[in-house]
Amino acid sequence: MDKIPSFTIDHNHLLRGIYVSRKDNVGGDVVTTFDIRMKEPNREPALHAGALHTIEHLAATYLRNDPNLKIICDMSKQQGVKVQKGMNNSR
């Protein structure tokens, strides 16, 4: 069985930053998922749920005005958020 690429990352060496998490081909378009990492896993406390929720709402307000960007979800363990770029993601 193939390993999920994002599960093979050594979280002990990740730093804060913006990472390309994956690229998928969907209907001839490339959809890129970014991880916006705001904390260093296993070294810093997680983001407070209220702070992360506020960041999601502020970002979503901005991102929904661009038909090619969409906020997906908060990252596991409240380390940041995932953003997707590619196909028109409007609801």
In short:
The chain has 1 helix and 4 strands.
Describe the structure.
- The chain has 91 residues and is of the alpha+beta class.
- It contains 1 helix and 4 strands.
- The chain has one helix at 49-63; strands at 17-26, 29-37, 69-74, 80-85.
- Strands 1-2-4-3 form a 4-stranded antiparallel β-sheet, covered by helices on one side.
- The mean pLDDT is 75.
Q: SSE layout and pairings?
A:
Layout: E1 17-26, E2 29-37, H1 49-63, E3 69-74, E4 80-85
Antiparallel strand pairs: 1-2, 2-4, 3-4
Shape: flat
Measured between the Cα atoms of the first and last residue, the distance is 34 Å
Q: Which strand-content bin applies to the residues? A: 25-35%
Question: What are the low-pLDDT stretches, counting only 5+ consecutive residues below 50?
Answer: none
Q: Rg, please?
A: 14 Å
Mean pLDDT: 75
Trace the largest sheet across and list its strands: 1-2-4-3
Helix percent band:
10-25%
Succession of helices and strands: EEHEE
Number of strands: 4
Number of helices: 1
**How many strands, what sense, and barrel or not for the largest sheet?**
4 strands, antiparallel
Name the structural class: alpha+beta
| Oligomerization | single chain
